[in-house]
Amino acid sequence: MSARNDKTSKPDRGPSASGPGKAVVTEATPSMAQYLEIKTANPDSLLWYRMGDFYELFFEDAVVASEALGIVLTKRGKHLGEDIPMCGVPVHKADDYLQRLIKFGYRVAVCEQLEDPAEARKRGAKAVVRRDVVRLVTPGTLTEETLLDARARNFLTALALIPLAQRGADGASVALASLDISTGEFEVGSTLSGDLAGELVRLSPREILVSDRDDADETCKQAVAISGAAVTPVAGAFYDYRAGERELKAKLGVAELGGFGTFSRAELATIGALLKYVDLTQIGKKPLIRPPKRASAQDILLIDAASRASLELTKATNGDKRGSLLHAIDRTVTGPGARELAARLAAPLRDVGIINARLDAVGYLVEASALRTDLRNSLRSAPDIARALSRLSFGRGGPRDLGAVRDGLSAAQACGRLLEAKSGTIGLPNELQAIAERLAAAPAALREELENALNEELPLLKRDGGFIREGYSTDLDEARRLKETGRQVMLELEARYQQQSGVKTLKVRHNNILGYFIEVGQASAQPLMQPPHSDVFRHRQTMANAIRFTTEELIATEGKIATAGERATSLEQAIFTDLARRADEAEVPLAAVAAALAELDVATALSDIAEDEGYTRPLIEEGTALEIRGGRHPVVEQALKSERQGPFIENDCLLGDGAAGEQQQSDGEGGSELRAARIWLLTGPNMAGKSTFLRQNALICLMAQMGAFVPARYARIGVLDRLFSRVGAADDLARGRSTFMVEMVETAAILNCATPSSLVILDEIGRGTATFDGLSIAWAAIEYLHEVCRSRTLFATHYHELTVLPERLQEVANVTIEVKEWRDEIVFLHKVRPGAADGSYGIQVAKLAGLPPQVTERAAEVLAMLEDAERRGSNSPEAILDELPLFAASRAVADKGEGARRSAVEEALDRIDPDELSPRAALEKIYQLKSLCRDDDA
C-alpha cells in the first residue's frame, strides 16, 4: 500500500560505505566486530548499543541520530582506514531521546549488555561483554509511560486486502486488526475501501502494517497516507490465516474462537501478521491481549475522514487538541477514562438500547451530585492499571507499576462501596450496576498482598531497592538490618555472649586478616575452654595477653553482614517477581476493573459537564426525525464564556420526517415560524454564523449517539447511520488537487454514500468555479439529495438563485441567519429565521476585515451599477462595462472613440461570407486582407 517511511529507511544504508559484510567484521576490533554483526541483523533500525552507562550509535546511525536529536557527533577510532562517526545518549535519559526518535518515525533496536563486565574479563583480556538486541522499539509497540500519551490509545494496525471471492454480502474489501500492546485492547473488523480513511482516522494508529505483496488501489493508498501513521511493509508470509487463528487461540487460551465471534480468513490473516510482528519486535516476549472486539459498520455511526477533520472532533484545524470537541467535553480525571471518552467520541453508536443505557447512567449522576463528587474524588487516585499490567507482563515493569495495581484496586474498592450503598437503597441504572458488579469482583487478596508488601513511596526501578515494606519478609528485614547496622548487630551479639558465658570482659573485635572474632583476656578465658561453653566457643588464636575464639553463629553472622547488601537486593527482586506473577495471574479480573473504572470516569465526567454547562438529555429513537430546540455549539459557547463575550445565541433545527411541524421561535418581534423539512437551504452573509450553525447540529447528534447529554434545551434525534460534513475550503497540492477538486471529491463521496438515515452538512458547494457552473452543480446536488439520497440535510449557500427551490421541491425550506443594517453597517444577530437572505453583505464584511476605504467605496459604486444594469435587463458584459467609468475609459481608448471611422480591413471582413469561399478563394482573401493592413499602416 505504501513504501516505508523515508525516515525509517535512512539507517538501511548500513554502518559504513562498504557495509557490514563478512570481510569488514574480520578486520574490525572485537568490540566493533560484535557491533557490526548485530547491526547486520537489524539493518532497518537505529542500533542503540549499550556500553556501560551510555547507548552508543556508530557509522550512519550516529549521523542520523545526531541530526534528529541535536546531539554532538564525535568519532571513535578508525575502521578500514576511516574515522568511525559516533554519538551517544546516557542510559538514564534514554526514554527522552527514544520519544523524539519515535516521533520522527524511526525504529530503534535496543542492544543491552547481557552479563556483568567482570564476568567477561574472566574469559580473557580480549573477551567482549555479551550483548544482543532485547527489543525493537517502533511507534506502534511502545509500553513505557514516558513514551506514551496517557490520554490516547496507541494502536498498531495491520491491513489486508480481501480477495474478491472471500467478500461477504457487505462487500467489505479491507480487513483490519488493531492492537494497543500497552493495554491489550484489541479490535478486528472489515470495511469498504472507500470507508478505510474514516476508519483509520477513528482508530488513529501510530503504525500501520501492510503486506509487501499487496497491490492496493489508489483509494487504500490515500487512506493510509491520510492517517499520518508510520507505514511498515512486512513479508507477505506474515499474512497466514492459519497461523493467525492458531496464535489467537493460544493468546486467549481457548480451543475455539466461536465465543468471540466469526472471523473471516482475511481478518485472521491480519491477526496473524499483527501478532507475528509483535513477536518479532518484542523478541519473543508476549503481550497481554484482551478478547477482540468486533468493529462493525452496522454498530457505529460512520464518519469519513474529511468530515472528522471538518467537525474538529479530536483536533482543531491547526492540529492542536485545544479548540476540538474532545477538549471541550473532556472532564475525565484519569488517563484510561480520557482514552475511553475519545474512543466513544470517535465511534458513536447506532444501537438505541445501548445509547439510552449510557444516558441513564449520565442522567442518574446528574441528579446524584453528591455521589458524583465522591466518585470523582476516588477516581483521581486511580492509576492506569491496564498499562502497568502490560509492562509487568513484558518484564519491563517496576515497583511503581505494582503500586499502580495496588492503588487502582484501592480506588476500585472505594468506588465500589459508594455505588453499592446506592444500589442497596434506591437502585442504580443498568450501566452503573454493571460497573459496580465488576468493581466488586476485584481481586481483594491481591490488593491486600500489595498493600502489605509495598511502601507508600516507590522507586522507578526495581534495582534501586527499598520498595518492600518492613515487616513483610523476615529474611529481608534481617538482611537490611545487617546491611545498615552491622556494628550494632555485633554489639548485641557481644552482650549476649557476655551474659551466656559470664565473662564480662568478652569482646567481639574485627581486623582485616581474621575478620570478626571473640577476644578474652588470659585470666578470663578458662571458662570458655571448658564444657559446656567449649561446645560453642572454638579456640582460634592465642596471643600474649589474650585468647581469641569464634562461634558458628559469629561466622554465619559475619557472612551475612558481608553479603547483606546483595542479599537484600536479591530478596527484594524475588519478592517483586512473585508479586508481578500474582498480578499477571489476576490479569482477567484486573482488566475488568480497569475497564469499569474508565467507564465510570466517563459517566461522571459527562454528568459533570452536563450540569455545569446546562446540557439536556436527548431523546434517541428509530426513524429520521431531527428536532433540536435551543441548540448551541459546545466549543464556541465555551470560548465565548472564557473570553466574556456574552451568551451564545441558541437556534432551532427541524429536519426529517416526523420532526415537529410549524413551531414558534421568538425573535423579539412577535415570533417567526420555522418549517420542518428534509432539507434546509441556509443563506446569509459571511460571519453571520452559518458554519457554526451547521456544525453545532452535527455535533449535537454525534454527542447524543455517543451517550452524552447535549447543548440544547430539547433534542429528539432519529439515529444516524452516517454523518457527512463538508464545511470550509482546502486544497491538496501534494496530490495535484485544487480546492475545487477536493470539494468535488468530497461532495461525490457524500452523494454516493448518503442514505435516508444520514445527516449531511454542506457549505458553499460550487463556489470554487465559474458562477453558472457552480450554481448548476449546487442546484443538481440539492435535487439529488432530495430525490435520491433523501437525507436530512443542511445546505448553506450564497447562490440566491437556489432560494426558488422550495417552490419546486416539497421537502426543501429556506432559512437564513438574521442581520440588521444600521448606518451603513451590519449587525449580526446569529438567529436562524425562515426565508432567504436579502443580500450577501460582502462589502460590509470586507470593511470589518479592514480593507482600505478606497477599495470598499469603489466596490460599492461598482455593485450599485451592476445591480442597476440587472434591473434594466442589460446583462451584456459590454453594456455593464460601459456603465463603469474606469472600464469605459479603457474601452474608449481601444475603440479610438465613439463613432470612429471603420478601417478598410474591417469593411472587407464584413463583406466576406466564409461559407461560400473555396479553399483557393479563401487563400486569395487572406492575401487581400494583408495588403489592406499594409495600406492602413501606411
UniProtKB/TrEMBL annotation:
Keyword annotations of the record: ATP-binding, DNA damage, DNA repair, DNA-binding, Nucleotide-binding
Gene Ontology, cellular component aspect: cytosol
Record Gene3D superfamilies: 1.10.1420.10, 6.10.140.430, DNA repair protein MutS, domain I, MutS, connector domain, P-loop containing nucleotide triphosphate hydrolases
The keyword DNA repair is assigned to this record: yes
Pfam family of the protein (one): MutS_V
Molecular function terms, GO-annotated: ATP binding; ATP-dependent DNA damage sensor activity; damaged DNA binding; mismatched DNA binding
Biological processes annotated in GO: mismatch repair
All copies of domain DNA mismatch repair proteins mutS family, residue ranges: 758-774
Binding site residues for ATP: 684-691
UniProt biased composition (Basic and acidic residues): 1-13
Family of the protein in this entry: Belongs to the DNA mismatch repair MutS family.
Protein function: This protein is involved in the repair of mismatches in DNA. It is possible that it carries out the mismatch recognition step. This protein has a weak ATPase activity.
Name assigned to this protein: DNA mismatch repair protein MutS
Source organism of this protein record: Candidatus Filomicrobium marinum
